[in-house]
Sequence to fold (389 residues):
Amino acid sequence: MVGSFHRDTWAEIDLDAIFYNVASLREFLDDRTEIMAVVKANAYGHGDVQVAQTALEAGASHLAVAFLDEALALRKKGVTAPILVLGAVRPEDVELAARERIALTVFQVEWLERAKQLFKEELPVSFHLKMDTGMGRLGVKEQEEAKRIVAIIDEHPLFSLEGVYTHFATADEVNTEYFSFQYQNFLRMLDWLPYKPKWIHCGNSATSLRFPDKVFNIVRFGIAMYGLSPSLEIKPHLPFALKEAFSLHSRVVHVKRLLPGEKVSYGATYTAKDEEWVGTVPIGYADGWIRKLQNFQVLVDGVKVPIIGRICMDQMMIRLPKKVPVGTQVTLIGRQGGEQVTIDDVAQYIGTINYEIPCTISYRVPRIFLKKKSIMEVRNFVLDGNRYV
Ligand SMILES: *Cc1c(COP(=O)(O)O)cnc(C)c1O
Fold:
């Protein structure tokens, strides 16, 4: 049983593309540098466990998520690889993390003291100390605080400092001035520590691909694993081609002829100029296909056609060059013949970054996982009754 769904809208996740992207990075990096696959936010909307397993098969050794719940979801689905939570966790949940062998990020003395007070388990906990070198988000900035955190961890018989890391704000920009400033800060901060923990890391996708000699011994590989460039400006400078894993499809469920002057959708904002063929497509803003995409283009029969009128919650209309049969496939992201709509195209049209697009395609859109060109699994989150647990 690979799963099933009962609506004509779906996303296809090409796991071979993910495998290729991770394996290519594996080949590109120094043998001593390991890969932590970043699978937060349901693997950027692609499917957490499927992506995690593929990345591990392709050469990643660790996983990272943003929240403890995401790590627990992976454990529940049988993932045994080391997992690091990059975001804040409640001090009372450190016991739960210990039971599930999930490593935590630490960046506050008060938090660590509270966690120590509450901790009654007889199990070890691994921490990665986060340094704020200029991102201004999570992380320690002062030497005294860093030293205090290491001392508290070292005093505790079950706590251990497994890693230290930072995050760059501009690694995806051609101008490397601020990147260098942060990198120098990180080097300075590493000297504050009484010893070097097992893992030292600072590389997101952009850093791993552009500065492989500045990533220490493990990288946190996110966006590029999904085949997307960390930014448009470094896209021409990537060391190897990436393969986009996510595509989005639907089928025309109604086709009709409009007469000149007839209107389409809420607000009656679209008026047919001539006799026109219009197709209704069952995807809308509740699927993450947001209203701002009005007038953007989708692929039908290998040609680009416009979205006309306002996008509704569950449906939208497209102008067809000719009458097509009900059931004709519509590709919103991906290829048809020689034409392609990329995630970057969608992101640029609505003035955002590629990261936001697959994350925003909601749980209501089932994901079909393809491996070696055949269907490995179908996840219908609506039938499963929740997002991705
Ligand atoms: C999301 C995230 C990453 C991954 O970044 P990409 O640009 O997607 O490679 C790495 N590190 C931290 C701390 C993150 O939050």
